[in-house]
């Protein structure tokens, strides 16, 4: 079971939809999050993409020296980026980070934002273009010389002269809920990511992608993208969830939903359907809360509860075939520690924070000299 964290390059704070409690997300703050996620034992971290975010490749590259083990899940945008240029970026990042690159394929999105970036393709055409993109991208990183005369992409003699550390190429992650998205996942990607939906819906997605992948002679791994609100008790966790949206008014929710509705994303439509823009029935499955999706695009659900309860819900997803959990929480620096301290001890095989690399006092904060434990002399 792998657990990833998140870099909030679009903003961070204690409340959704409000400037109150907002934090300045600059390089110093992102470095704090990176060092925390690295030292606490998160396996990787997702960096979002879009015009409301800092550039994910520049951001991720700047954080390589601040980390030792953490892997970076960074977006490529077929239809906006050249596949050979994207391959060179991936190879250089993977080499400079000693194999710590994971690649998030983002084929969908907001048509208004895509048009501003020069992409005018319709929904299914974007996935056609993504398939051609990945044929070139994967081929050159695997060491092949690629010629492709496609509908959307044409290259001749494409090569990658500097190979990546990861073989045959950095692992590909991807999420999407439409038929076109599932077909792309089945044909090309290594890990299919679902947004957080009830178990039966996630199970249907997994079954469909598995069946499609089998037709291509492939197997695919599965992950899930969720927020998490974990506290020492279930009551505290639900109170924290309510506080997170306590500054939201109905007008803000309505404006956000109107903007999100313009996306031609099946996944976004499914997220919106979970709450219907209303805040009265947000627990859509046991401990699965849709409040974040009231104003946030993309992943809009959170697991809410104490550590043991959240771990139990994670295991239910794991029983479906999920082995990667991509988490986030507001604010992201503080919540990284909460997740590590309150949730990690309930996950099998995961090291408790503070135990792996250094000395952690069994007494917590030292309150008197006579409580300082004596360290064994070096032999």
Outline the fold blueprint.
Elements: E1 2-6, E2 12-13, E3 22-23, H1 27-40, E4 44-46, H2 56-63, E5 71-76, H3 83-96, E6 101-105, H4 111-116, H5 123-141, E7 146-149, E8 154-158, E9 172-174, H6 179-188, E10 191-195, H7 199-215, E11 221-225, E12 227-231, H8 234-244, H9 250-261, H10 266-275, E13 283-285, E14 288-289, E15 302-306, H11 307-320, E16 322-326, H12 332-343
Parallel strand pairs: 1-4, 1-16, 4-5, 5-6, 6-9, 9-10, 10-11, 11-16, 12-15
Antiparallel strand pairs: 2-3, 7-8, 13-14, 14-15
Helix pairs in contact: 1-12, 3-5, 5-6, 6-7
CATH fold naming? TIM Barrel
**Topology order in helix (H) and strand (E) letters:** EEEHEHEHEHHEEEHEHEEHHHEEEHEH
Q: Architecture, according to CATH? A: Alpha-Beta Barrel
CATH level-4 homologous superfamily: Luciferase-like domain
CATH class reads Alpha Beta
Number of helices: 12
Based on CA atoms alone, the radius of gyration comes out at: 21 Å
Could you tell me the number of beta strands?
16
- Sheet having the most strands: 8 strands, parallel, barrel
The largest sheet has its strands arranged as 1-4-5-6-9-10-11-16
Distance between the termini: 37 Å
Structural class by SSE content: alpha/beta
Inertia-based shape: globular
Structural domains: how many: 1
Helicity range = 25-40%
The low-confidence parts are none
> How much is the average pLDDT?
92
Strand percentage: 15-25%
């Amino acid at each position: 079971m792998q657990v990833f964290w998140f870099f909030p390059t679009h903003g961070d704070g204690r409340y959704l939809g409000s400037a109150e409690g907002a934090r300045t997300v600059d390089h110093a703050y992102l470095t704090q999050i990176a060092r925390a996620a690295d030292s606490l034992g998160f396996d990787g971290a997702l960096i979002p993409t879009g015009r409301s975010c800092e550039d994910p490749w520049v951001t991720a590259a700047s954080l390589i020296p601040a980390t030792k083990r953490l892997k970076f899940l960074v977006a490529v945008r077929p239809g906006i980026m050249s596949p050979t240029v994207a391959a060179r970026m991936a190879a250089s990042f993977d080499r400079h980070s000693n194999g710590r690159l994971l690649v998030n394929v983002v084929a969908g999105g907001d048509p208004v934002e895509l048009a501003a970036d020069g992409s005018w393709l319709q929904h299914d055409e974007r996935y056609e273009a993504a398939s051609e993109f990945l044929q070139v991208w994967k081929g050159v990183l695997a060491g092949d010389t690629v010629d492709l005369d496609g509908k959307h992409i044409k290259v001749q003699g494409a090569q990658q002269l500097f190979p990546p550390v990861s073989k045959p190429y950095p692992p590909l992650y991807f999420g999407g809920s439409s038929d076109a998205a599932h077909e792309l996942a089945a044909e090309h990607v290594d890990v299919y990511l679902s947004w957080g939906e009830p178990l039966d819906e996630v199970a249907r997605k997994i079954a469909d992608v598995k069946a499609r992948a089998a037709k291509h002679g492939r197997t695919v791994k599965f992950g899930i993208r969720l927020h998490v609100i974990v506290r020492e008790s279930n009551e505290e966790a639900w109170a924290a969830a309510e506080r997170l949206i306590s500054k939201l008014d109905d007008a803000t929710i309505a404006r956000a939903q109107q903007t999100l509705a313009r996306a031609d994303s099946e996944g976004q439509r499914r997220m919106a359907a979970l709450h219907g823009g209303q805040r009265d029935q947000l627990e859509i499955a046991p401990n699965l809360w849709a409040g974040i999706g009231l104003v946030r695009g993309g992943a809009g659900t959170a697991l809410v509860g104490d550590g043991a309860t959240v771990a139990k819900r994670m295991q239910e997803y794991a029983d479906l075939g999920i082995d990667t959990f991509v988490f986030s929480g507001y604010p992201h620096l503080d919540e990284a520690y909460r997740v590590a301290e309150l949730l990690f001890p309930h996950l099998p095989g995961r090291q408790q924070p503070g135990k792996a690399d250094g000395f952690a006092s069994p007494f917590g904060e030292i309150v008197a000299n006579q409580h300082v434990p004596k360290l064994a002399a070096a032999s």
